[in-house]
Amino acid sequence: MNLFIHGRLGHFLMNEAGADGGDAGGGAAAETGAAGDQQVAGGSADTILGGQQQQQAGEQGADANNQPGEDQSKADDQASKPVVPEKYTFDNLPDGYKLDETAASEWSGAFKELGFTQDQVNKLVEMDAKRQQGMVQAYQQQMQQHRQQQLGEWLGELKADAEFGGAKFESNVAVAQKALGEFGTPELSKYLAETGLGSHPEVVRLFHRIGHQLAEGQLSRSGAGPAKEITIVDAFR
After folding, report:
1. How many CB atoms lie within 10 A of CB 158?
2. How far is CA 162 from the centre of its chain?
């Protein structure tokens, strides 16, 4: 083979190899780069979609989990909410406790506005009854103490009286009691004892004078007696 042909053949082979090698390398790189881009793009696309799907699935799961809890919470709130009746009843009132219709109507309006249940109203009525009972007992005790103090003062006045008291006190009391038995009634005696007026100095002196005149024959229940007889009205003057 001459040198010209050998040179041309070598140049041709080198161009062919270079062209094939460049195409092969460039194609492989392009393919590799395209595949890499597709893989990255695909991976990114999967990750984003997968993240959204996972987030949406998590939110749906949370909603699914929270929805029954919220319903249960609402149900519990409704169950625990006090039941306010349309009308309160005041049937079982404590002994001695009075509540008229006007007061019951006024109280019911206030109780309903405050949202009280029937049980709460019953407890309030019971507490108010105890309060009133305590006030009545305190008042009665105070009155009893005042009564005892007053009776003691009246007794001391009678005993200190120059005409009625002293050594003649017991006998004068007996005369007054006899007059009450003669002219009074059981109802009068009961009234004087309950009110304490049976120890009032003026009441005791009155019956003492009646008894004294009765003992001297100046006063008679039958109307028959000596000329100096006087009526019960005159004796009270």
Report:
1. 19
2. 62
The 3-state DSSP class for residue 199 equals: helix
Q: What percent of the chain has pLDDT over 90?
A: 44
Sequence-separated (6 or more) residues with CB below 8 Å from residue 200: 154
Sign of the CA dihedral with 173 first, then 178, 182, and 185 last: positive
CB 104 within 8 A of CB 90: yes
Question: Does the reported pTM lie above 0.85?
Answer: no
Torsion angle of the four alpha carbons 109, 115, 118, 124, in this order, in degrees rounded to the nearest 10: -80
Residues 110, 138 contacting (CB under 8 angstroms):
no
Helical H runs in the chain?
Answer: 3-80, 101-114, 118-160, 169-183, 186-195, 201-215, 232-236
The two structure tokens encoding residue 44: 């990114």
Burial degree of 132 (CB within 10 A; 0-12, 13-18, 19+):
middle
How do the domains of the chain map onto residue ranges? 82-154, 161-236
Mean predicted confidence (pLDDT) in 185-201 = 93
Distant-in-sequence, close-in-space partners of 122: CB < 8 Å, separation ≥ 6: 92
